[in-house]
């Protein structure tokens, strides 16, 4: 297939691939301090759903007049309910009146499909398409603010965050990826759906900013509108998705936005906390490299609100 060959042309795979599955290392992020006030609800009529992805939604009792929407995407072995319990977004929704969509993976092991051609294409019919349809449904149903739609996730959910930003740039104002991989890095040469990709996970898939950016552009050819600003978190002690995935993801978005990844505009040591370094490029890219932190970097709910402008 032309798409599959062109999308990965120029990527170098270095070193030898390991073969052990690593799903069991994926952990639940920070436990919330407080439970959300409302229960999570499943929505079964959100539109086309070729990949059979499930939609759950959190609607706070005090909804904003034109509510912003956050899509919060779980890790492998996770569920919508698990991410609702284990992430701070529903309690923040109680405070701020936005809606949270928690998609749920249809596959055994509940990783996301970030490997197939359909997942890596705008309106390709994969999980990314189903998640986009959930956003469109919620915007319509709750008169949401289309200029304030955000996406975030941990691990496999962070991979999907990058894929959503690449395949549906028109839908999102910002994305935050906690310990993921560059969009397209899990590409399966055989077209496999929901395939694990060891060379990417092990940090061996390396490309120039131009090659990584082309992958993003190829996922929605001829798109010329605005793109979400991105914040990329990764731990330097990540043994599941090796730390080089941070560097490749930064190269990807730097390539998309035309920044020189080697020259951030600002570098702040011990920010937002001791051992973390925050790098900022222009107004569209922030990298947070967390020294000594494994898989995954704990979610920073209040910082996320700041990045999203909520
Ligand atoms: C999507 O597929 C899931 C799993 O089969 C199902 O629970 C849900 O109702 C479907 N939703 C839509 C809108 O088709
Ligand atoms: C894993 O992804 C890379 C792109 O990052 C691709 O070149 C490689 O062929 C993929 N591996 C498999 C087994 O498909
Ligand atoms: C973007 O693409 C649309 C549709 O192809 C076109 O109408 C529009 O002029 C383009 N805008 C820019 C700034 O290139
Ligand atoms: C990846 O980025 C981090 C943070 O900027 C840096 O410390 C590290 O040396 C980089 N790794 C590689 C392989 O370039």
From TrEMBL:
GO terms for biological process: xylan catabolic process. It is an enzyme of class 3 (hydrolase). PANTHER family: FERULOYL ESTERASE (PTHR43037:SF5), UNNAMED PRODUCT-RELATED (PTHR43037). Belongs to the carbohydrate esterase 1 (CE1) family. InterPro entries: AB_hydrolase_fold, Esterase_phb, Plant_Biomass_Hydrol_Est. Keywords: Carbohydrate metabolism, Hydrolase, Polysaccharide degradation, Secreted, Serine esterase, Signal. The keyword RNA-binding does not apply. It is found in: Secreted. NCBIfam families: esterase_phb. It comes from Coniochaeta pulveracea. Its EC number is 3.1.1.-. Esterase involved in the hydrolysis of xylan, a major structural heterogeneous polysaccharide found in plant biomass representing the second most abundant polysaccharide in the biosphere, after cellulose. GO terms for cellular component: extracellular region. This is Carboxylic ester hydrolase.
């Amino acid at each position: 297939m032309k798409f599959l060959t062109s999308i990965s042309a120029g990527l170098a795979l270095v070193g030898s691939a390991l073969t052990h599955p690593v799903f069991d290392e994926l952990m639940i992020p920070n436990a919330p301090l407080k439970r959300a006030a409302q229960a999570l609800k499943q929505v079964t009529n959100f539109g086309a759903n070729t990949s059979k992805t499930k939609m759950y939604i959190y609607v706070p009792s005090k909804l904003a007049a034109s509510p912003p929407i956050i899509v919060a995407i779980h890790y492998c072995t996770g569920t919508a309910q698990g991410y609702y319990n284990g992430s701070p977004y529903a309690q923040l929704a109680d405070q701020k009146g936005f809606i949270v969509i928690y998609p749920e993976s249809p596959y055994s092991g509940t990783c996301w499909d970030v490997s197939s051609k359909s997942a890596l294409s705008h309106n390709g019919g994969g999980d990314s398409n189903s998640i986009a349809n959930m956003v469109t449904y919620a915007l319509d149903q709750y008169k949401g603010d289309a200029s304030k739609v955000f996406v975030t996730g941990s691990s496999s959910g962070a991979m999907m965050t990058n894929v959503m930003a690449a395949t549906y740039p028109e839908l999102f104002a910002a994305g935050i990826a906690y310990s993921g991989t560059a969009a397209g890095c899990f590409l399966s040469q055989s077209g496999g759906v929901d395939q694990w990709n060891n060379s990417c996970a092990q940090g061996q898939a390396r490309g120039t900013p131009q090659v990584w950016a082309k992958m993003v552009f190829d996922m929605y050819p001829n798109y010329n509108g605005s793109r979400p600003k991105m914040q990329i978190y990764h731990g330097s002690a990540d043994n599941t998705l090796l730390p080089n995935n941070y560097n490749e993801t930064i190269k990807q978005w730097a390539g998309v936005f035309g920044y020189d990844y080697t020259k951030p505009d600002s570098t702040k040591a011990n920010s937002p906390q001791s051992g973390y370094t925050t790098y900022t490029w222009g107004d569209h890219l922030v990298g947070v490299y967390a020294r000594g932190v494994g898989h995954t970097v704990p979610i920073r709910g209040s910082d996320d609100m700041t990045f999203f402008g909520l």
